[in-house]
Amino acid sequence: MSSVIIPVDPFDLVIFGATGDLTRRKLLPALYQRDRAGQLPPDARVIGAARTEMASKAWRAEAQKALEEFVPQEDLDPEAVKRFLGRLEYVRVDAGSETGWPALAKHLEGREALVRAFYLAVGPAFFGSIAERLKAHGLVTEKARLIVEKPLGHDLASAHALNDQLRAAFPESGIYRIDHYLGKETVQNLMALRFANALFEPLWNAQYVDHVQITVAETVGLEGRGGYYDQSGAMRDMVQNHLLQLLCLTAMEPPAVFDADGVRDEKLKVLRSLAPISASNAHDVTARGQYGGRKGEKKSYLEDLGLQASNTETFVAIKAEIRNWRWAGTPFYLRTGKRLRARSSEIAVIFRHPPHMIFPHLAQGLRRNALIMRLQPDEGVTLRVTVKEPGPGGMRLREAALDMTFADALNGVRMPDAYERLVMDVIRGDQTLFMRGDEVEAAWAWIDPILAAWAGWTEPPAVYDPDGRGPEDALRLIHQDGRRWREIEP
Ligand code: BG6
Prior knowledge:
This protein is α/β, with parallel strands linked by helices and about 500 residues long. It has helices spanning about 20-35, 55-70, 80-85, 100-110, 125-135, 155-170, 185-195, 225-250, 260-275, 280-285, 300-305, 405-410, 420-430, 435-455, 470-480, and strands at about 10-15, 45-50, 90, 115-120, 145-150, 175-180, 210-215, 285-290, 315-320, 330-335, 345-350, 370-375, 380-390, 395-405, 460-465.
């Protein structure tokens, strides 16, 4: 089965940070895949901008290497690669000084009527100054768009200042803040499941849902990003953005229409309904950990960093509560961590037991119904139900899974990488899957007091086993409510 391809309008996409990791690993492969699928019109250009002096030919050679490394072998079609490389041009621009800006302006001259997107695949320290220079050089046309990605600030105050800086150059409707989790197929599917089916929504509330577990477990450690990560930690790196976005999509009210502000208004309401966590309750409802090592086999976080001490957390668990009519009394347990026993991300909605059990002697030990949306790996949906065990000899009950893996159910459709969807949405001018400035600030407003509470704790983050399930404190956090985490399984 092949998916429907709707070509986008001609565009110029300028990537600042053209020689960086994000460009090589994600952006070039994503653009190539869309080109191969026939989505890019002939007059679409990708312009690399970076500080290095380099000819377009040399950048094309780098890009080819990136495709060979990061695109699956079976998707590398020589004709398509050649066509894609033909779209690439390079301009030397220094994000931190005036060098190269007139050359960039010249490059874009005469194409003012086209969509023009500027992807800032550079460190956040440059976001504000690049936006300013784009404006000063008259490059912010009516159809100009700015794309930025985390970290969007370090706390509420810095996120606010960044929003002000970006909005001084671009209108909010031209700013695309990426959270790549929103580009994942299963995350979008969550909205389809909830709002395009009559089945789930009537049960999607505190009356029927016992609790929700959102897990993003990783096996990787620092991956050479120690400098960034140690300043950030799992709370800023994962919870402030990815996990809260997943929580919002799970908990939000159905928007009246499926459009950018409809969806984002509802997500914002969820963020603003989160019960505050601060020094007075943080011990009861949060846990933090840091991965340890195993002699001769795996390095600990500190060994990975080459430091003697650090209080940065690589694991977070939180019991979040949403104070509104739909969710009062139904906790949302969030957890994320690096170097855990499996790479596994899911949203699990655990329903309440039936209100009256007519098989009381059989019901012992039966688990509640659960709807599990697997984000990765093996994107899919599972519904855990109770059924009769087949065979004569009386009524015996057991659990069974109604299991759907998207790749099988949808007949082998390729699951596109999040960036393919997101970059095309920018060109189309669709902001539904991007965070609005006020959302980012609302997320920080909830996170800041938790970080402040932790800063006052004398005990360091609990060290947990690599390949484990996280620290004991995370278990306590859910066990004290008489519930259990789902197993982290590959
Ligand atoms: C990034 C974080 O945003 O998401 C990384 O900075 C993390 O630390 C990554 O590893 C996880 O993304 P994915 O798509 O692999 O789940």
